[in-house]
Amino acid sequence: MEWTEDLATGIQAVDEQHRELFRRINALVAAIKQARCKDEIDATIRFLDEYSRTHFADEERAMKESSYGGLAEHQKQHAAYLANLAELQQEAAAPRIKGVSYDLSVTTNQIVVDWIVDHIMQVDRKFGAFLSNRLS
Ligand SMILES: [Fe+2]
């Protein structure tokens, strides 16, 4: 997956963090595709989880500081995503049988890749628009 300009929120710090999130998601997708060992997949999920938490905290702080009305709803979405990652971690830790890594990549695509693209498009960009209206 690739970060493209149509995903831009207009908030430079947020956009940079989104690019880093994409890099980490790609590392996870690659590890699963190559059917790497559990430890390695687990490490890439933790790597993504850690960065997601930092990024969400930064985003939510910026929303608080600008008294953004959509904060509570946005926080809920971030929490749901972190719960998805925890679920993925469990699935990755389950004993592997043939074909499981295919299931894992389908799950990852649904609950990580699709989620983040949709979230940025629908939710983060709203905050970007709010900030730019407020400043203009
Ligand atoms: Fe967000």
Structural notes for this entry:
The protein is mainly alpha-helical and 136 residues long. It has one domain: Four Helix Bundle (Hemerythrin (Met), subunit A) (Up-down Bundle), CATH 1.20.120.50. It is built from 4 helices and no strands. Helix 2 packs antiparallel against helix 3 and helix 3 runs antiparallel to helix 4. It is elongated and about 55 Å long. It starts with 11 loop residues before the first helix and ends with a helix. The structure holds fe (ii) ion.
Layout of helices and strands:
Layout: H1 12-33, H2 38-65, H3 71-93, H4 100-135
The structure holds fe (ii) ion.
Residues 59, 74, 78, 119, 123-124 line the site of fe (ii) ion.
Q: What's the rounded overall pLDDT mean?
A: 92
Q: How helix-rich are the residues, as a percent range?
A: over 70%
Q: Kindly identify the CATH topology.
A: Four Helix Bundle (Hemerythrin (Met), subunit A)
Per DSSP E runs of 2 or more residues, the count of β-strands stands at 0
Total number of helical segments?
Answer: 4
Using the coordinates above, name the CATH class: Mainly Alpha
Helices and strands: which structural class? mainly alpha
Structural shape = elongated
Low-confidence stretches: none
Total of domains = 1
Q: Mind summarizing the main beta sheet?
A: none
- Heteromolecules bound: fe (ii) ion
Tell me the series of helices and strands, N- to C-terminal: HHHH
CATH architecture: Up-down Bundle
Residues in β-strands, percent: under 5%
Distance between the termini: 33 Å
